[in-house]
């Protein structure tokens, strides 16, 4: 592979744009197709299908074999609440290759001392999300328990293509949240996208266990369960 | 250090820009219970330093050895590991799966 091609691929990754690296299996000839140029490519239909699957793989077109390396943007988790659970979540997310961004306008909570090395946005969610942008490779998690902070974040997430939306709180808390979102104009289908109670049901008690349950649910949504009970 | 696919490709770029000989190994096909999915990468330099994984530790040693040859002669090659192959059984995919790995050199020359 040409170094220039590798540099271009890494630059697209850093900008959170998808690419497909096309390698002709027999000759080793390669080209990089950016998401924006995909429609104009001779293999457009095949590339599009592969990109949607999010997985790399071998394909054949008119008797020629290709290997398609799919580079989807790294999945990202955007959280409202610089709280105990998100502190536990930070090192776990890093190991899972999930980019983490934490939003909390309460500057006493959102401090670098509490979140070393984490992207912190000490702003209101509507402002912060304008900067971050929420795409189809983003999970949104509301953890503050405070509707003033969580609700604007949830509303932005519901208007976006986020692959996962979750909100912390008891059934009763969520019931009141649903009423507020209904009043704000969201219908049942939209609100149904919110995972609440949040996280896999592993009986989580401590902040770290809750963080694990949430990240487990995010990974499960991203990858899809594969084991079936026969 | 735990490396992710983004780290691996970024490392491949950094190593190549530092003037080191670099090869990239990619899992291109798997059968059975292969430990790493298609598209997983391993980056190797001419000294045999490596980052990433193509099999969860079972055949990395063999891939690294081949990669050093790829860096030396510049020829890409496809390696296959699995229980059907006695030599591969020695390096061991004990899970019983089979994998095919494509190893290519990173070409730093602008002329290419």
From TrEMBL, chain A:
It comes from the Bacteria. Residues 77-218 form the XdhC Rossmann domain. Transmembrane segments: none annotated. This is XdhC family protein.
From TrEMBL, chain B:
Pfam families: XdhC_CoxI (PF02625). It comes from the Bacteria. Residues 15-82 form the XdhC- CoxI domain. InterPro entries: MoCofactor_Util/Proc (IPR052698), XdhC_CoxI (IPR003777). This is XdhC family protein. It comes from Bosea caraganae. The lineage of its organism: Bacteria, Pseudomonadati, Pseudomonadota, Alphaproteobacteria, Hyphomicrobiales.
